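PROTEIN DESIGN WORKSHEET
SECTION A - STRUCTURE
LENGTH: 340
TOKENS:
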């Protein structure tokens, strides 16, 4: 798997937001203006039980809707976001699985909204088929009730060999009213062409990553190599099944470097590090860490944070996904690589 921000067409997308057509503060055209002024290239307004349209959006607009259907084990309904279907018939389908099937047959896509906020459990998500992903971050649910993350749900599905993409969204209603719930979660879409259908296909195929702020410039993965270039971050997480994987933070790198320079400090590192090399080239610095259990880590950084992580080791995992965390606590999430 390999992508670079310097290749192809990359669009910043808001795929879950609301207008006055349901319970949002702004009209559909005001929502389009809000996101257009903030650099979004793709927009889908997903009002509750209402398919909304806009007169003008300077990027790519796709029809969307959010519906509430069925009930999970804790007696709470599924909230399902639908993109790419301009057909009121979907609003009359009461069964969650039949709705998803109809959306897929109509050429659209469906994903599950805010599973944590909705009190959904793994079994609820596992029993449905055909949805492309779940919201792993919902800005509105986060700022209002601190239930915005769905990462545990995501990893449970991935660990059971489900191909499920992860979406970061706003779920904006309030926009300018506190607590502000807009422009806090989005996806970067690697589109085939600048059309509603082309963007929809890219989302369906997982050709996007999600973010709260960090931007990925390059991502490369093979079974023995992981290479990430991005805006400055403090930590890279490689997530996989069970307790495996790896977390690399600048705090740990700096501590290892400090200890490695002291003879007694090296003894503290001997079960982790086989060798360490530090190179300074003006503002940019690099640290190469050879691990005792095999593999090598390279981190390139400056005073603003790390911009390159390179990990050489055998990634013999059922799946991996990568998280980037900046010093303000904001994440970006790259879609998973699965052994299916």
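SECTION B - SEQUENCE
RESIDUE ASSIGNMENT:
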């Amino acid at each position: 798997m390999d992508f670079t921000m310097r290749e192809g067409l990359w669009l910043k997308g808001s795929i879950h937001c609301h207008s006055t057509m349901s319970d949002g503060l702004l009209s559909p055209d005001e929502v389009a203006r809000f996101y257009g002024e903030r650099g979004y290239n793709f927009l889908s307004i997903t009002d509750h039980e209402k398919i909304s349209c806009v007169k003008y959006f300077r990027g790519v607009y796709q029809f969307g809707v959010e519906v509430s259907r069925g009930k999970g084990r804790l007696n709470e309904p599924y909230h399902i976001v639908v993109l790419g279907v301009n057909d009121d018939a979907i609003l009359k389908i009461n069964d969650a699985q039949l709705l998803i099937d109809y959306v897929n047959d109509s050429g659209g896509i469906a994903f599950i909204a805010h599973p944590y906020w909705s009190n959904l459990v793994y079994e609820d998500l596992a029993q449905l088929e055909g949805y492309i992903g779940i919201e792993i971050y919902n800005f509105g649910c986060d700022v209002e009730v601190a239930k915005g993350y769905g990462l545990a749900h995501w990893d449970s599905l991935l660990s059971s060999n489900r191909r499920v993409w992860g979406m970061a969204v706003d779920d904006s209603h309030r926009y300018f009213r506190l607590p502000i719930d807009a422009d806090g979660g989005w996806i970067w879409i690697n589109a085939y062409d600048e059309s509603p259908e082309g963007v929809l296909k890219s989302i369906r195929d997982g050709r996007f990553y999600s973010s709260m702020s960090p931007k990925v410039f390059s991502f490369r993965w093979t079974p023995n190599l992981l290479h990430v270039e991005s805006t400055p971050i403090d930590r890279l997480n490689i997530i996989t099944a069970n307790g495996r994987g790896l977390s690399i933070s600048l705090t740990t790198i700096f501590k290892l470097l400090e200890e490695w320079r002291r003879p007694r400090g090296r003894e503290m590192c001997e079960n982790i590090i086989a060798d360490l090399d530090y190179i300074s080239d003006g503002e940019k610095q690099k640290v190469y860490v050879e691990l005792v259990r095999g593999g090598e880590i390279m981190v390139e950084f400056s005073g603003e944070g790390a911009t390159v992580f390179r990990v050489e080791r055998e990634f013999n995992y059922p799946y991996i996904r990568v998280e980037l965390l900046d010093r303000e606590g904001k994440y970006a999430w790259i879609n998973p690589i699965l052994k299916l």
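SECTION C - NOTES
The mean pLDDT is 94.
The chain has two domains: 2-212, 217-338.
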